[in-house]
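Q: Structure tokens for this one, please.
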Amino acid sequence: MRWMAPCAGAAVLVAGCASSSKTTAPTTTPVTAAAAPTTTTAGSVARGSGPVNVLYAGSLVNLMEKQIAPPFGQATGFSFNGFSGGSTGLASEIKGKVRQGDVFISAAPSVNDTLEGSANGNWVSWYATFADSPLVLGYNPDSKFANDLKTKPWYQVLAEPGILVGRTDPATDPKGKLTVTALQAAAQQYSEPALTGEAASTSNVFPEETLVGRLQAGQLDAGFFYSSEATAASLPAVPVTVPGQSLKATYTVTVLSGAPSEAGAEAFVAYLLGPRGRAVLQKDGFNLVTPPKVTGSGVPSALSSLLAG
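A: Here is the predicted structure, written as tokens:
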């Protein structure tokens, strides 16, 4: 199997990276605290003003920027400032005080562990698990391999000569780690030893925020995504399954300790996990955790009724 090398030409880079979402200024920029929210009734979201910095998993770019941010601003008066990236990488930036945020959304519960406790800066004391989404192999419908992906097992198609497949970095992104697990497990389960070498390759690794754009631009034949990403981007996809493996994203959200815009952060979490946010999640194919499962302690009082239990 031959994998796609990173973009080289300027024109390719422009086309392939167009989907990258980084709408937050560098965190060294002072952030004006959000105004205190007004009182809300049951089922509503607090109103206020000011920016809310949301650091979120790169697999949620389409959801956050196009489906959640605009109506959240209209409903609450707060302004959404989003910054996307691999969950593991974002946690490292938070811990290292490279990037400041109010809300952190991860694609793996274990990432929160790296921000808990005094040794890790006490950035996270609680988080709510609210949805999951299985790993899939999305593909370009115009690819010459599209028909094979419809009719053959995914691991057999990946072994075909000339196919160009992208994935994310396992060192910074839980999806990249899941992909490597899937490739290694499939190599053993289905006697496809070539997949082991491909799991160790770095020539097929791209930033999470650019994968959809690269695939849609025809730079890749296929790529590893979560089903919710594929649904939101209208990408055809096939399930990536290996017996004995749980290959899915598990999404969590928390308000970071010392959030500059705590009121706005609480309003954002209330919107995301409230009726309007959950309706969008369900439409995009997320499997909802009902009610959201809280781990840890210290949930803000404004969210206690929403996250009861």
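A few notes: The beta strands are 50-57, 78-85, 103-106, 126-139, 165-166, 222-226, 237-239, 248-255, 287-296. The mean pLDDT is 86.
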